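Recap from last week: sequence in, structure out.
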Amino acid sequence: MSGPAEPPLPSFLFLGVRGEGIDSLRARIGRILEDHRRYREEAFQPGAGEGARGEARETAAPAGDLDAALGELLDRLRSNAPYFHPRYAAQMIKDPAVPAVLGYLAAMLINPNNHAYEGGPATTEMELEVVDDLLRLSGFMAGGRAAGWGHLCSGGSLANLEALWAVRDSRPEGPVVFSRASHYSWKRNAALLRIPRVIEAEVDARFRMDPDHLARILEKERPALVVANLGTTGTGSIDPLEAILELRERHGFHLHVDAAYGGYARACLRGPGRTLLTEATARQRTGLSEYAYRQIRALGRADSVTIDPHKHGLSPYGAGAILYRDEALKRPLLNTAPYTYHLADRPNLGTISLEGSRPGAAAAACWLTHRVVPLDASGYGAIVGAGLRVAREFHARALEAPLARPLHEPDLDILCLVRLPRSGVEDSGVTLGAIDRATGEVYGRLSVGGPGRPPVLLSRFNLPADLACRALPFAARDVDSLGALRLVLMKHWLALGEHAGTLEEMMAAVLGS
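Predicted C-alpha cells:
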C-alpha cells in the first residue's frame, strides 16, 4: 500500500493473527503462576492448624466436573467472531497486547480493589501512574509536569456520566450541547441526571460538529457544558476543536472532549520526551490529515477528556478513563463511608469516582502496557497510524470504485460507505431507498451471522435521511433512513506487507466491481 514504511513493531507485543506469540505468552504466564505460588507460600507462616504448605481439603465436586465445564466454556467461546483478526472490522475491538494480558492476569490472581488504598495499594499506585501518562498524552501539562487529575473506570459511558455530573453540580444552570453524531450515552446520561435541557448541534457532510451552528446556539443560550468529539463512534469524525475552543473563550462554557475512541491518536503527534512532532513529520509517519493533526494537537486545551485504554490503548475491556483539569470538580464527586478509607493520608480513588468496586487488574494491564509501548509516534503512534493509513487507502479505492461511494473522508481509522445499485449512477436519479437496498444486500453477506466465512466482517451505520442526503447529494430522498457499511480498520496488521493480500480481498468484497 502507499504511504510511509511499515512501522517496526516488537514481535512479542501481540499474539499474532495465527497465534505466533502463544509460546512466548505461555512462558511468561508460567513465570506469573510460579511467582504467585511463592507469594502465597510466603504470605503467612503456617499456623498450628495447617500443614507445612497449607494444603486445601478435597472439595465435594470432582476435578472432572471442572474439566468438563471448562471444555464447554472453551467450545462456547468459539461462537464469538474472531475479533483479533484483521478481517474483522465490525466493532471497536482491538486485540489486547501481550503486556496487558500479563498485567491483568498477574493482578487478577490477587484480586485487588482500587476503591480504597487498603484494598489495592500497589494497583492504586499503578492507576495514578497511568492517569499521569494519560494526562501527558492528552496534553494536560503545566510547567513541564502533568496537570489535572482523573481515574480509570469501566468505560466511556461511565466517564461521560461522571463528567456531566461534576459539571452540573459545579457550574451555573444551563443546557448541555453535543452534536447529532455524539455517542448515545450523552442523551441517556442527561436523562439519568435530570438535565432539564439538551441541544443537539448540527453536523456537516463529514459528520463533524458545525461550529457556525454552535455559534448560533451560543447567541441565544448559555450552556454549562459543550461536548466535542475526537472520534465519533459512527464515523470516527473529529470535531473542529480549534473553532470550538475559540467559542469557549468568548462564552465561558466547560468544554468536554469525548476522546474515548481517538484519544490515543495524540501519540501520533508526540516525539521523544515532551516534544511535539511538526505537522509534516507527524503526517508523514502516521498518515494523519492536516485537519486531524491540528484538532488533536488542541486536545490539551479542553477542560475534561474521556479516553479509553480498552480501545486504542491495547488493554482488555473494561478500562476507560476520565481526566479533569480543575481540582474543584472533585467536590461534587466526594464521598466516604465508615467502613473503608481508613488510610486517610493515602489516595482512596473511590472517594472521587462514581464506581464502588474498581478492578485493580485493569490498572495493572494499562500500567504494564504503558511501560512497554512508548506513548509517542514510535510506539502507540505507529500502531494507531497503521490503521489510519489503511482507512485512507480504503477511502481512495472507494472513490475509484464505480459502485461504491464513501460517506466521508476518514479522520481516524473508521470508514463508512454505501453501494450503488448496478443500474444507478449520480446522473440517473438514484434514490436513497435503492442505495439502502443495494448496501443492505452487501451487509447481509459481510456481517456477523452471514453465510459461510466472508472475506471481511463489518458493521452497519444507520443515519437519518437528511444526513444521508448531505453526504450523498446526488441521491433523491424517498425513505427516512439509510443503512451504510461501517468498517473499523483498527487492526494494524493490515498495514504490514504480509497482509497486503488480505486487504485486497477485503476491498474487493466491500467495493465490488
